[in-house]
Amino acid sequence: MSTAPTTTTDDSPKPVAPAPTRKAALRPLILRLHFYAGVLVAPFLLVAALTGFLYAASYQAEKIVYAHELTVPVGDGKLPLSEQVAAARKAHPQGAVSAVRPSPEADATTRVLLSGVPGVGEGHTLAVFVDPYTAKVRGSLEQYGATGALPLRTWIDELHRDLHLGENGRLYSELAASWLWVIAAGGLVLWFGRRRAQRKVRGTSGRRRTLGLHGTVGVWAAAGFFFLSATGLTWSTYAGANIDELRTSLGQATPSVSASVAAGGEHAGHTGTGSGGTTASTTPQDLDKILAAARAEGLGDPVEIVVPADASTAYVVKQVQRSWPEKQDSVAVDPTTGKVTDELHFADYPLLAKLTRWGIDAHSGVLFGLVNQIALMALALCLVLLIVWGYRMWWQRGRASAFGRPIPRGAWQQVPPQILVPLMAAVAVLGYFVPLLGIPLAVFVAVDVVLGEIAYRRGKRTQGGQVA
């Protein structure tokens, strides 16, 4: 008995493909985002990594290059601060004394900061270095910022921050900070989404080995990248302004001591700061009295005495230690009576203000000193390696003479609506607060959609020509 052969017709039921899981649906989308963000943003990240490496190393270089100005032989006893300031003014009579940093250590010089000196850049001061034991001036250099950066570190700092292009140049560093965490997060998802056997480096070659190195180093460095991205955004131009506004609305803004003499110890909301320069009512002798009042309130070295702008403003003495443990206490002192009119302790800062201060100082390499700087240099090197490996993988994806094939389009179409809609809403909100993430992402999506539509129409015309 023979059996009739089974035939398959068009009416036969076809197997239904299972719906993609969330993991399977999101992976192609994350892969495409990680790929294109890496290719397009990597040049900015590379510049930020290289200049950041130089900045982390600049602290130690500064100590070597400016050793003559920064250090002195230890003497028997330090002279009154008024004599040291008078010696600095005699050597540099131009400008006005805006602040004084008394010698914080036995072998350190005193810095007398002068504002309004011809030839000194805007926002910079001229630091006159005085031997606290002999009142001899050991030199003068431009200084910038709260950490007292001297010319070498200032130049590297500005290179890292804005490439010496001013405010417009800051867009590059904000773009890098805005995308670094996105690229790192996407890499983590992709790496841990791979099977364990596919993550190994030993015994592999070609693109798989490059991928293994890229993924392994990326996983170990990811936490550092998240930190650098978050802290970098806190003082960026656009995202930083949004963060400041959010902190202020939550009552978490960084307070400051009130420099108004009329404050009378009532703290006046801790809103004013003393700045400016010497006035007719200001004499160098005031500084010894002011410093003694601050010492009586427990302000230890290092400190900076900010000279009032006019007779109605108090001196502000503030601790300027940014290394751990932070010393950021400050007091306002009436120059007439020598009494403290207001005080502010770092322990009383709101939590977010403390976290911001610690984060910025760690990002700058001062919070934990040399260890902090070595860690930053290691992170910078990791980022450079990841970028090099990333571009190499792109090259290895090419065929024959082609340079790197892109990830196929249409990944978002695989994402279920119940996931895609909330995801798009979250990205829109995030893009509003971090505009140099949101705007480039919107441009990328728009260009990608247009290119996809062009490719689709060309494909239809080609097929139509073949049929005809």
From TrEMBL:
<feature type="transmembrane region" description="Helical">
    <location>
        <begin position="374"/>
        <end position="394"/>
    </location>
</feature>
<dbReference type="InterPro" id="IPR025711">
    <property type="entry name" value="PepSY"/>
</dbReference>
<keyword id="KW-0812">Transmembrane</keyword>
<feature type="transmembrane region" description="Helical">
    <location>
        <begin position="33"/>
        <end position="56"/>
    </location>
</feature>
<feature type="transmembrane region" description="Helical">
    <location>
        <begin position="213"/>
        <end position="235"/>
    </location>
</feature>
<protein>
    <submittedName>
        <fullName>PepSY-associated TM helix domain-containing protein</fullName>
    </submittedName>
</protein>
<feature type="transmembrane region" description="Helical">
    <location>
        <begin position="415"/>
        <end position="433"/>
    </location>
</feature>
<dbReference type="Pfam" id="PF03929">
    <property type="entry name" value="PepSY_TM"/>
</dbReference>
<feature type="region of interest" description="Disordered">
    <location>
        <begin position="257"/>
        <end position="282"/>
    </location>
</feature>
<keyword id="KW-0472">Membrane</keyword>
<dbReference type="Pfam" id="PF03413">
    <property type="entry name" value="PepSY"/>
</dbReference>
<feature type="transmembrane region" description="Helical">
    <location>
        <begin position="171"/>
        <end position="192"/>
    </location>
</feature>
<dbReference type="InterPro" id="IPR005625">
    <property type="entry name" value="PepSY-ass_TM"/>
</dbReference>
<feature type="domain" description="PepSY">
    <location>
        <begin position="78"/>
        <end position="140"/>
    </location>
</feature>
<keyword id="KW-1133">Transmembrane helix</keyword>
